[in-house]
Amino acid sequence: MVGDKQTGSGHSLISINSNSNSNNETQTAANANSNASPPPPPPRKSSTTKSPPQELRILCFDLTYYNRTTQFLLSCAGVFILYIIYGYLQELIFTVEGFKPYGWFLTLVQFGYYILFGLLERRLEAFRTNGGRLWSVEPAPRCIPLRTYFVLAALTLGTMGLSNSSLGYLNYPTQVIFKCCKLIPVLVGSILIQGKRYGPLDFAAALAMCIGLAWFTLADSQMTPNFNPLGVAMISGALLCDAAIGNVQEKAMREHKAPSSEVVFYSYGLGFVYLFVIMLLTGNFFSGFAFCLAHPMETFGYGFLFSLSGYLGIQFVLALVRSSGAPLAATVTTARKAVTIAFSFLLFSKPFTVQYVWSGLIVVLGIYLNVYSKKNKLTFADLQHRLKQFSARISRSPSRKFLIEV
């Protein structure tokens, strides 16, 4: 009996404990379910995590993991050094006695060197991507259709050939000033070809460039005894071709995702074929070749360094655009042209007048307005709105009321 009671009490204790345990487990499970009911929030990325840096290469040199300041300084140094050498050698070649009629042959030599440099660059890119032997690796297939390259090659030929040949009729500083005013034909070409719209600052920049350019050309015609309007026509034609090149290249590279090395290789390669055939038909090839054989160091030797500095300069400008943006790259290249003009006056004897300085400053003002317009977009509607606000403030000012009352 007692055992039964104790057993029963034991069973009852056990049952109570088991009930309490089951209740605790139920509450624990309920609490667990209630706590687990809202899904945990997704892990947030820390603000300190950085995206991988954009790849920045100049031929086989990798600048990706340098900081922005170092990339900018290296690109600027390359642009200044290479293009100063480019301008010096270009003017030096044309100081060779009797070379002035052979500007188109210099363009042919330059295109030939550019083909070799472009082929080497494309193989370096394929070697870096696929590995293997440098000379047996196949470059990447062509992205842009050949019909587009036929147009680009003709425009490239017009730009380089007319620009080189114009030095037979113009001072080098005048040619550089014309190149600084590339915005004018680019603005017209992008409106006609791509249907772009521009603001008042862009048109003000173009107007300032036109005024400065006209003043500089007038001063050059007065100071240079052998000034020839044919040189102005040539460099103007080169700028028109250059403007069309920029718009056609931008459209083709955007649509077909083509690398710049492909565009350079095919444009200069087909341009070389064009010019070679034209010079064979006109007979200018043999006379130019005979002159260069008579002066190999001043033509082929300087021409190689001239072409190499120009090709490498293009790579540094592209790297500067990728790392720092187009407006800052335009500012750097403009400063480079100013330094090139100064070196031209220092290293080569030529007449000088203070009108060169004032007209050059007006051109620099136009370039500054162009760079400023890239950072601060101002439309004609914004300008009209600001003018209305300004006129409303003037009409509400006390001095204006006083004048009306008087």
Could you name the key traits of this structure?
disordered N terminus; 1% strand; mainly alpha; 78% helix; 406 residues; 15 helices
**Judging from the principal axes of the Cα atoms, what is the shape?**
globular
Total count of helical runs of at least 4 residues = 15
Let me know the average pLDDT: 75
Radius of gyration equals 35 Å
Major sheet size, sense and barrel closure: 2 strands, antiparallel
For the secondary structure, the number of strands is 2
String of helices and strands:
HEEHHHHHHHHHHHHHH
Strand content: under 5%
* Residue share in helix: over 70%
| Strand order across the largest sheet | 1-2
Low confidence ranges: 1-37, 45-49, 400-406
Secondary-structure-based class equals mainly alpha
Give the termini separation. 127 Å
Quick rundown:
The protein is mainly alpha-helical. It has 15 helices and two strands.
Provide an overview of this structure.
The chain is 78% helix and 1% strand. It contains 15 helices and 2 strands. By secondary structure, the chain is an all-alpha fold. A two-stranded antiparallel ribbon has the order 1-2. α2 packs antiparallel against α11 (296-324) and α6 (183-193) packs across α8. The relative contact order is 0.14. The protein starts with a helix and ends with a helix. The model is unreliable at 1-37, 45-49 and 400-406 (pLDDT under 50).
List the helices and strands and how they pair.
Layout: H1 2-36, E1 57-58, E2 61-62, H2 68-94, H3 103-130, H4 146-166, H5 172-180, H6 183-193, H7 200-223, H8 229-256, H9 260-282, H10 284-294, H11 296-324, H12 326-347, H13 354-375, H14 380-396, H15 398-405
Antiparallel strand pairs: 1-2
